Amino acid sequence: MAATAGPDAGSRFGFAPGQEIQEFGYDTDVDEAVRSAVSDVTGTDLVDEEYSDVVDGAIIWWRDDDGDESDLTDLLVDALDNLDDAGTIVVLTPKPGRGGHVGPAVVEDAARTAGLQPTGSVAAGADWNGLRLLARGRGR
What we know:
Layout: H1 9-12, E1 21-24, H2 32-42, E2 55-61, H3 69-82, E3 83-94, H4 104-113, E4 116-123, E5 128-135
Parallel strand pairs: 1-2, 2-3
Antiparallel strand pairs: 3-5, 4-5
Helix pairs in contact: 3-4
Protein name: DUF3052 domain-containing protein
Pfam families: DUF3052 (PF11253)
Organism: Georgenia satyanarayanai
């Protein structure tokens, strides 16, 4: 597991050159190296949650004080609205021992309720864990 985002974090998330990635939950505590790694691999800037066109993927920054499991489920459903059929969502949560930590079971349960399938954790950054999600029935 990488201690920092590194130059290949965006590709570890499943993103590729030319893709449009939507970002949810941006705040002052996000890992800018992770954001840059995603932009570097795609060659495009992240678009915010107000973006209304089709996107190829999404990253969601989620902390304990952002809400409960049903709030995360709602946000995942919102992220699916613009997501292309083959799109990937990565939910980023603070690592254990960091403020705002959310256990992986909460994210997995919210994902399943939203119709998404967890496909594994991905190294995100020094303070963040990532969980990669695909819509059920979508393969890569």
